[in-house]
Design goal:
Rossmann fold; Alpha-Beta Plaits; 7-stranded mixed sheet; 4-stranded antiparallel sheet; Trk_Ktr_HKT_K-transport; transmembrane; membrane; transmembrane helix; NAD(P)-bd_dom_sf
Length: about 350
């Protein structure tokens, strides 16, 4: 049944079978946003001027090989009319050496000069070739990354939390069908893929098969179930974290292969109810859940000198112990002593260097 549902969303021609240049409108690798058109034009003019100076020097060094003895001005004049393909013919190479230099040096320089000063057509072709190269290199090196399906409020929040934990933007791939959302993600340095997270071919070009984790945050619960089914089929070992609006649908996501499910509507409802009684508690909980703002809940490996200690006696405020995939609250008997291989859930201050946590691991 699951396979039939997933197969129904597969297109006749899969994007993953297309060459990289056909994916330019699908995959967007962040580019340098600081490069303005005027800066690009200035760079082209500088390269063209440098090429003109280079050819002038080559011609002047071999000035005896031309129809007249050249001065520096003559060499610059010949270089200019040659590079711009005007070629008045008043100065010509006459020796075998000068003609060989024209063939091997000045002719390629002439072609490069034309490319530098070319119009919009070649500029677009050059841009497409560069983007194709970026996509090819990105797809070959993409491993152990995180895929976020849906870049709405929940998706953007999950990305912010990942970035706050020290994950590089280049290791996060966003899948969405909304061009405005993708543009926003690209502005934050994220790689984006345009398409539906329910389609296997879109997931393939996002590298889901090689992903370490997948965050499923569509706006509809039925879409979340289909996304989870498709992801689990392609990535049996990836960690899937999904969001669901209604708690009644939570078991569907777990049956579809999600490792963890967050019920967004009920969680928001509980916070609203709690805020009417103890608003300061809600403020603290929002602080814990907000990246780069005060405190946050983090996970780290147990340090060697902490083995055998009670987690409540550590410097860090420990909330729970993760042992063999089981979460043990710090106030239970099972968490009375830390064992080798345990991981701790604790309250981290945002001033704490994420690299320190990585070193502990």
């Amino acid at each position: 049944m699951k396979n039939r549902i997933v197969d129904s969303f597969r297109p006749a021609v899969e994007l993953s079978s297309q060459p990289d240049h056909a994916l330019i409108d699908v995959i967007t690798v962040p580019r340098n946003l600081m490069a303005s058109p005027w800066r690009k034009l200035a760079m082209r003019l500088m390269w063209a001027f440098g090429l003109l100076v280079f050819v002038t020097a080559v011609v002047f060094i071999d000035r005896k090989g031309y129809s007249e003895d050249l001065t520096v001005i003559d060499a610059a004049y010949y270089a200019a009319v040659s590079l711009t393909t005007v070629g008045y013919g008043d100065i010509v190479p006459v020796t075998q050496e000068a003609r060989l230099v024209n063939l091997l040096v000045i002719t390629p320089a002439r072609l490069a000069f034309l490319v530098l000063l070319v119009g919009a057509t070649l500029s677009v072709l050059t841009d497409q070739a560069r983007r194709t190269f970026q996509i090819t290199r990105w797809r070959k090196t993409l491993r152990n990354h995180t895929v976020v399906i849906g870049y709405g409020t929940k998706g953007a929040g999950s990305v912010a939390a990942l970035l706050a934990d020290g994950i590089s933007p280049s290791q996060i791939v966003v899948i969405d069908q909304d061009r405005a959302a993708l543009a926003n993600a690209e502005h934050h340095g994220l790689v984006t893929v345009s398409g539906s997270g329910t389609k296997a071919d879109v997931l393939k070009i996002a590298g889901v098969a090689h992903a370490q984790a997948v965050v499923v945050t569509p706006s509809m619960d039925d879409t979340a179930v289909l996304c989870t089914l498709a992801v689990r089929e392609l990535a049996p070992s990836a960690k899937i974290v999904a969001s669901v609006r209604e708690s009644a649908n939570r078991h569907l996501l777990l049956q579809s292969g999600a490792d963890s499910v967050v019920t967004s509507a009920e969680t928001a409802g509980r916070l609203l109810g709690l805020a009417t009684v103890t608003p300061t508690v809600v403020e603290m909980m929002e602080d814990l859940l907000s990246p780069n703002e005060g405190f946050s809940v983090a996970e780290r490996a147990v340090r060697e000198y902490e083995v055998g200690s009670n987690p409540r006696h550590l410097v860090d405020i420990v909330l729970a112990v993760l042992r063999n995939g089981e979460l043990i609250r710090v106030d239970t008997a099972g968490a009375s002593a830390i064992k080798p291989g345990d991981r701790l859930l604790y309250i981290k201050h945002t001033t704490e260097d994420p690299a320190e946590i990585m070193d502990d691991e």
